[in-house]
């Protein structure tokens, strides 16, 4: 009876499916009673509110023109004063006309104590109400938005930090401008940022962008909640009122480590906000939205493009363009399948092979959740881990990251054992003596540098390896041969000793 294949620990823990599969689409279902209510109220409320909003805009526009008359479109040099209370009052009047009832919790910190406000979750343009309640702080906006009629003038009133798509250095300049304002000692108003970088359906908090956390100054988290479920403009206008809760949490002061690593600071702030909201966190980001659009253009379901890009790119060191190319390859196989998933029949047809135990074993390497299909996320992970690596150090580095479960840049004996079991495809390996030989200082851990330092040159594997189908043998052994095929700096005596140890285990 052939030995049972044991999958690596990362299959269960390192690249798990997210708590929320699709955080970007809304699924609003109204009952018949709610539809009738919206229709009846809409007949009365929509015209009245439309007239009221038009009157407010007729007052706001000339005021904003006077405020920004001499302001350059290239960005503000000095903060303007003496007008914020007027525009804040008009802004509140505007949202009141739309039927918003706002409840503010907590206390907003001053621009000295918390120069940056991080607002989440971001779900619609209604979230601009936070800007009104916060006293019109500066925001981050595209430079093209300033040229929009009417609303472009309103936006210029808050003196936003501008992002230009035409400027290749725009991202760096934007971060420098945020940092300049944040470290002005209260000279500039606070900078309000939606760190998620895109809109979601409020079911979770996705990856926070680093822009708000690069300056390394205290950040005040701001939560925005909509107890009402109607979020579309027309449905909102048809409600008697729309409840909104804006909650200011205590400012989060970065540690010395978080000042040096904005990613950790962003994760720390996100964790605090998620706990207060009672929501899970995922590693989705705006790049997932781009992949969703690309999937739709390739005649796949848009949800097929969701891969949790932040986690995939970090763990497997993939760029967006690389994932996009894999999506095109995936579409060639899955475009004829319903739901954008590959079954074993399509898998066999694409490879032009019959369905056999060997092919089923290969299919199972891709099918991480065991549901009998391969989605795009599983396809990317499978292709990257099993097929892509071309140079040997890249293979070792990728494998080390995948098996370093707790991400402390070291692997324990258990993690080392899992790595070898996965690579060789068997479960009965005793690596205690080998690990003890490598772990010369007895710390119970081996580092990536030590792994590179010790592993021998290519091992001449015996012909009689395991009584498994040939295709199953080739994949793991090929990976192990590639992983071991690089120049080493160890003495020949120790190299031969290590080779004998590994050969004793594998033969």
UniProtKB/TrEMBL annotation:
Highest taxon, organism lineage: Eukaryota
GO biological process, one term: phospholipid biosynthetic process
SUPFAM superfamilies named in the record: EF-hand (SSF47473), Glycerol-3-phosphate (1)-acyltransferase (SSF69593)
Keywords for the protein's UniProt record, in alphabetical order: Acyltransferase, Calcium, Lipid biosynthesis, Lipid metabolism, Membrane, Metal-binding, Phospholipid biosynthesis, Phospholipid metabolism, Transferase, Transmembrane, Transmembrane helix
Main location per the UniProt record: membrane
Pathway noted in the entry: Lipid metabolism; phospholipid metabolism; Phospholipid metabolism
Subcellular location: Membrane
Any one GO MF annotation of this record: calcium ion binding
Similarity comment: Belongs to the 1-acyl-sn-glycerol-3-phosphate acyltransferase family.
Protein name: Lysophosphatidylcholine acyltransferase 2
